[in-house]
Amino acid sequence: MSEVTTIRILLADDHALVRRGVRLILDSEPDLTVVAEAGDGAQAIELARAHRPDLAILDIAMPRLTGLQAARELSRIQPDLRILMLTMYDNEQYFFEALSAGACGYVLKSVADRDLIEACRAAMRDEPFLYPGAVTALIRNYLDRAKEGGALPAKAITGREEEILKLVAEGHTSQQIAELLFISVKTVERHRANLLQKLGLKDRLELTRYAIRVGLIEP
Question: Where are the 4-aspartylphosphate residues found in this chain (predicted)?
Fold first, then answer.
């Protein structure tokens, strides 16, 4: 059994020379190890089933199944698997498709020696990794949708839940909150329970920390 600290990686690219180069970059790090190599998207899925890696690095343009198709299938069958797309395409369309396919990062081959290690570690911390051009595309897409009145990403909590979260964090009791918002104590308690469940928190203290972090109250 591998050490807990070692990130086990599946590498998929249809060019053996590219795989060799990428493997050299990855294997030079003590906490990264390539456990399987695939030459196309279909083989990547087979090897992921067999080896259960922590992270899959997929080229976008591959025979049989593309990296995007493989990412969709891998996200479905192994939801815990982190996925990075490795590509020569600095292309907004591919970038957005990669995100919707379940990838948490998009790395350009031209700068893989600079970005890939950082991207692997970010993926394992559950953080997205985007190269600068992709960040620009993401912001532009968001602003375009906002301008056109399109739906912006849904908030984690409703407006009413946010009101209650703020008041709980400020130290108000359920009775006081009920009076302030003209609702029943029972309704306050239900919203509070929903908040804890939605945000994965345990108690008032954690709710207060969350409220500080998202700027609802000052520390």
Answer: 59
